[in-house]
């Protein structure tokens, strides 16, 4: 979907982005993570030409972004930012329908798309379409911001710290929402964050940047298990690395025959969820269920061995 070839952005003698080359496959989530000033947002903004590259090229579906006028390019790419960026004087429906309106969609088609997206985000259209942003909670505003980015059915969506302004509980739910919506729609997403936990939770691939350079680009498991250098290792956190690995492994990978006390966890839950359940309740194992039926258990010893956690 996206090919970035030696893209560079300089401001005087400063290389904000320094010869970055990477690709993002169709239908995946790529998360760009780094500290403040690492160049991650500048890189994202060069994809839809909110920033013009000093050199290098971005191609979407094989076509250079320089071949299309910037305003026309942006209408084909969804864009969601921190704090949602909603128009305060527009209703929810008009906010979501802003880009389809620019694309001259028929009014009936825009209305149907607005209602479709509100339903997808568990917001009853009859209740929410005529509200204004000030009448929504922070989480609702963020959902409307993401819905607006999806309104024109873009093949590609760019997200710049979309959940950065949310409190931790709402943020986790917003991340779950994004994963669910992505699974339903199959869009290609590139998302910027400073939070490695968020990168690992959301990304099919994670790109780590520092001082304008791409330091490592790989799967979450590769980033955790084989950090390219000390900077990446520090981003992951030596103490947290085993727990982050556990968050990537479903219970179905370690389920075994046998019974265990307490409430069952779904087979798609992570080993980190099971570890938390064991530690919280003092159990040595947790039952695992699939389609409402218990299919076995995962033991505390098996989890500890997988993460190489020692007592």
Give me the secondary-structure category: alpha/beta
**Which sequence of strands runs across the widest sheet?**
6-7-8-3-9-10
Please trace the helix and strand order, writing H or E for each element.
EEEHEEHEHHHHHEHEHEEHHHEHEEH
Number of DSSP-assigned strands: 13
Which class of the largest domain in CATH terms? Answer: Alpha Beta
- Broad shape: globular
Low-pLDDT runs: none
Rg, alpha carbons: 21 Å
Assess the beta-strand content as a share of residues: 15-25%
Largest sheet: 6 strands, mixed
**N-end to C-end Cα span:** 46 Å
In short:
This protein is α/β, with parallel strands linked by helices. Helix content is 38%, strand content 25%.
Describe this structure in words.
- The protein contains 14 helices and 13 strands.
- A hairpin with a 2-residue loop joins strand 9 and strand 10 (213-218).
- The strands form 3 sheets. It has a 6-stranded mixed sheet with strand order 6-7-8-3-9-10, sandwiched between helices. Strands 2-1-4-5 form a 4-stranded antiparallel sheet, with helices on one face.
- It folds into 2 domains: 2-238, P-loop containing nucleotide triphosphate hydrolases (Rossmann fold, 3-Layer(aba) Sandwich), CATH 3.40.50.300; 249-308, CBS-domain (Roll).
- The chain has 311 residues and is of the alpha/beta class.
- The mean pLDDT is 86.
Secondary structure elements and their pairing?
Elements: E1 2-11, E2 14-24, E3 29-33, H1 40-47, E4 55-60, E5 63-64, H2 70-75, E6 77-81, H3 92-96, H4 98-102, H5 107-120, H6 125-128, H7 138-150, E7 156-160, H8 168-185, E8 188-193, H9 196-202, E9 205-210, E10 213-218, H10 220-225, H11 230-236, H12 241-246, E11 265-266, H13 271-281, E12 285-290, E13 293-299, H14 300-307
Parallel strand pairs: 3-8, 3-9, 6-7, 7-8, 11-12
Antiparallel strand pairs: 1-2, 1-4, 4-5, 9-10, 12-13
């Amino acid at each position: 979907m996206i090919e970035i070839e030696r893209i560079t952005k300089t401001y005087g003698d400063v290389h904000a982005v320094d010869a970055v080359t990477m690709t993002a496959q169709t239908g995946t989530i790529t998360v760009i993570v780094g500290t403040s000033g690492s160049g991650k947002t500048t890189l994202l903004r060069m994809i839809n030409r909110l920033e013009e590259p000093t050199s290098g090229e971005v191609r979407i579906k094989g076509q250079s972004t320089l071949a299309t006028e910037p305003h026309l390019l942006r209408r084909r790419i969804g864009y969601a930012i921190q704090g949602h960026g909603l128009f305060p004087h527009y209703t929810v429906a008009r906010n979501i329908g802003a880009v389809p309106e620019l694309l001259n969609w028929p009014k009936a088609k825009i209305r149907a798309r607005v209602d479709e997206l509100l339903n997808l985000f568990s917001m009853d259209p009859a209740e929410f379409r005529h509200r204004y942003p000030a009448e929504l909670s922070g989480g609702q505003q963020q959902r409307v911001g993401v819905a607006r980015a999806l309104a024109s059915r873009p093949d590609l969506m760019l997200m710049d710290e979309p959940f950065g302004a949310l409190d931790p509980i709402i943020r986790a739910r917003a991340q779950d929402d994004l994963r669910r919506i992505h699974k339903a729609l199959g869009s290609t997403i590139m998302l910027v964050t400073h939070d490695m936990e968020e990168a690992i939770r959301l990304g099919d691939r994670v790109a780590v940047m520092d001082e304008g350079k791409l330091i490592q680009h790989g799967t979450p498991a590769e980033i955790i298990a084989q950090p390219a250098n000390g900077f990446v290792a520090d981003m992951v956190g030596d103490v947290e690395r085993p727990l982050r690995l556990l968050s990537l492994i479903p219970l179905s990978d370690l389920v075994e025959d046998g019974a265990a006390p307490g409430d069952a966890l779904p087979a798609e839950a992570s080993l980190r969820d099971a570890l938390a359940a064991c530690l919280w309740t003092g159990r040595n194992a947790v039952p695992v269920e699939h389609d409402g039926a218990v299919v076995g258990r995962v033991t505390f010893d098996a989890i500890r061995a997988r993460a190489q956690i020692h007592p």
